[in-house]
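About this split. The held-out portion is used to measure sequence recovery: a designer receives only the structure tokens and must propose an amino acid at every position. Recovery is the fraction of positions where the proposal matches the reference. Here is one held-out target exactly as it appears in the evaluation file.
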């Protein structure tokens, strides 16, 4: 996750509008008044949630939303779940995705071997059913790497082989999994579905911007084929059963010879002379902006992958815009179109919506990708509790001098020109399909209201927003409505601590990041307190990062899981019967400075392998209820 900020612009901020928040009663009435049904083909049960009002919290009711006892905070180097639940590591960084090489605890695996193994620092995930809740595919992003853990000697003596292994540890990992007789899950090896998509995988560029001169390079004069995908964060799932992986902090890998010119495309996307400390540019010239000025433009997209066809070529979908995509939540409309929601994960960035021009089934019958033919919008939240979607199109008077490709390649700049609402780090987005409601996390913004930075406003109401908040909005008729009504679901923090303005009902938490609406309507919230603040300062007493479950109607929130030391909890999904949950544990043992010591790889954590292991490893875990019941009930 990025902790960076953007340069401040002169957009209309919410403090310039009178604050008039929407009432909770009005919001619930508006949301529950909608009664449409949304169909998502074979993954319908995974992607459709029922209204919370249909699941009353009655003792002994299998359909109870919050049927577990919340757990206390923890600073232990382990995963903690409520009594009556079990947790098991399904697969961890370096484990083979099929019948490939085993992980070496001294990190001496080669780049070729890493390309056959589960990638590093896994993030957003999706379970694709093959046989309902008993067998399926698990696709999970691999966001970034830690040199000191990836190599025995860290980033010393950098070589082309280290660059290759770094890129091989990024991307996406896909495995086949199945449930045994005793509810134990295992990775199927070998599997015809197993696959890695890495920073070196050939990927096509599709959509309106494909072939644009700004996407052409020396190695690709067509502007239609790029090597790899990087900084893969949150996810999306299409009704036609493909996986959407989202490129977030791609600027971390590129180096400019000097600071970018003010107002330039490079400056707007935070490219600079330092990046995040990665050294891939030292042996691969495409990461040196002076050598390949257009290469950065080929990243920052949503990438579509067919998990059921390992031979298929992934596609970067340019119609969804170029930002630091945190996710790509796909929602089907009542007319059969698709809407895709994305947050741009930096402080003072925006929330976006894409709407396909045609119903997705019709588009596919005509040989058109629903992700290539549509209109991109950016959100403006108004102080009276309403909001509007501003079209990012050349026929918008504010963009009269922009071409469509200008907008798609510099989406941030186009959103600036429209005066969209600058948010407090937009993160994951999910929906409650039955009541036309969208919910999004805003992790934090410590610069809000500080100095010359944008002031507080109705949708971002706290200065120095240390704890973040959760916002939701609802439509009157359909997901394509131009206007909506919004409210703040939760101001995060410790509600028992004076001066924090937290309105959390239940267990304290901060820095909300991952969010997942279960088919039953349970709202799962995951946290990403940064490595520099976890357990200190404003977060003293919060323990390690955690996952909570909330009732979206009453807003009661209970802590369900706490992860190992200095990890992030990210990515969650249930099987269709909701009796198995997959959760991502990312970067356990990350150093406060992010730079670990290769001589002391277990200084901050030894999870999941414990004393016998050589270093901490990110992993996907499986959670089941001991009585075989529904998770959370």
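Reference sequence for scoring:
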């Amino acid at each position: 996750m990025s902790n960076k900020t953007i340069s401040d612009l002169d957009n209309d901020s919410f403090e310039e509008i009178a604050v008039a928040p929407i009432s909770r009663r009005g919001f619930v009435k508006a949301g529950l008044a909608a009664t449409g049904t949304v169909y998502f083909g074979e993954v319908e049960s995974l992607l459709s949630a029922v209204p919370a009002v249909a699941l009353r919290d009655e003792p002994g009711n299998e359909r109870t939303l919050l049927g577990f006892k919340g757990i206390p905070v923890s600073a232990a180097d382990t995963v903690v779940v409520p009594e009556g639940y079990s947790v098991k590591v399904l697969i961890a960084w370096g484990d083979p995705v099929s019948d490939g090489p085993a992980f070496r605890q001294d990190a001496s695996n080669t780049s070729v071997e890493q390309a056959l193994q589960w990638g590093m620092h896994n993030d957003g995930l999706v379970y694709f059913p093959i046989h309902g809740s008993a067998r399926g595919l698990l696709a999970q992003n691999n966001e970034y790497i830690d040199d000191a853990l990836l190599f025995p000697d860290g980033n010393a003596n950098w070589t082309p082989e280290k660059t290759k292994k770094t890129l091989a540890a990024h991307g996406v990992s896909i495995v086949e999994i199945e449930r045994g007789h005793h509810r134990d899950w295992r990775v199927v090896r070998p599997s015809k579905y197993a696959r890695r998509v890495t920073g070196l995988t050939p990927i096509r560029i599709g959509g309106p911007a494909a072939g644009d001169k700004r996407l052409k390079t020396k190695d690709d004069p067509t502007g239609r084929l790029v090597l790899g995908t990087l900084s893969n964060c949150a996810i999306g799932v299409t009704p036609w059963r493909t996986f959407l992986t989202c490129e977030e902090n791609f600027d971390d890998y590129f180096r400019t010879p000097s600071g970018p010119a003010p107002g330039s495309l490079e400056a707007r996307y935070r490219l600079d002379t330092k990046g995040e400390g990665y050294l891939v540019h030292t042996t691969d010239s495409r990461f040196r902006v002076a050598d390949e000025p257009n290469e950065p433009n080929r990243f920052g997209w949503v990438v579509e992958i067919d998990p059921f066809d390992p031979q298929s070529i992934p596609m970067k979908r340019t119609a969804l815009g170029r930002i630091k995509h945190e996710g790509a939540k796909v929602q089907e409309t009542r007319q059969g179109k698709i809407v895709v929601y994305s947050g741009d994960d930096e402080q003072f960035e925006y929330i976006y919506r894409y709407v396909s021009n045609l119903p997705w089934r019709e588009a596919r019958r005509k040989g058109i990708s629903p992700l290539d033919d549509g209109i991109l919008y950016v959100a403006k939240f108004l102080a009276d509790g309403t909001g509007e979607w501003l079209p990012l199109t050349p026929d918008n008077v504010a963009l009269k001098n922009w071409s469509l490709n200008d907008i798609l390649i510099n989406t941030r700049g186009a959103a600036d020109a429209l005066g969209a609402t600058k948010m407090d780090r937009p993160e994951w987005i999910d929906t409650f399909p039955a009541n036309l409601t969208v919910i999004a996390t805003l992790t934090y913004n410590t610069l809000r209201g500080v100095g010359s930075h944008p002031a507080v406003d109705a949708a971002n109401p706290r200065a120095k927003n240390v704890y973040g908040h959760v916002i939701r909005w609802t439509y009157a008729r359909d997901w394509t409505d131009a206007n909506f009504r919004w409210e703040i679901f939760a101001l995060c923090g410790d509600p028992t601590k004076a001066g924090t303005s937290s309105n959390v009902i239940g267990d304290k938490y901060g820095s909300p990041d991952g969010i997942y609406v279960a088919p039953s309507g349970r709202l799962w919230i995951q946290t990403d307190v940064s490595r520099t603040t976890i357990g200190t300062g404003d977060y003293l007493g919060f323990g390690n990062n955690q996952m909570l479950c909330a009732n979206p109607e009453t807003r009661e929130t209970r802590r369900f899981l706490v992860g190992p030391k200095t990890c992030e909890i990210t990515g969650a999904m249930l099987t269709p019967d909701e009796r198995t949950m997959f959760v991502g544990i990312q970067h356990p043992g990350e150093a406060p400075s992010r730079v670990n010591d290769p001589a002391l790889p277990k200084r901050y954590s030894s999870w999941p392998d414990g004393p016998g292991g050589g270093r901490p490893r990110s992993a996907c875990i499986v959670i089941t209820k001991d009585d075989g019941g529904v998770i959370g009930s």
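Annotator remark: The longest strand covers residues 122-131.
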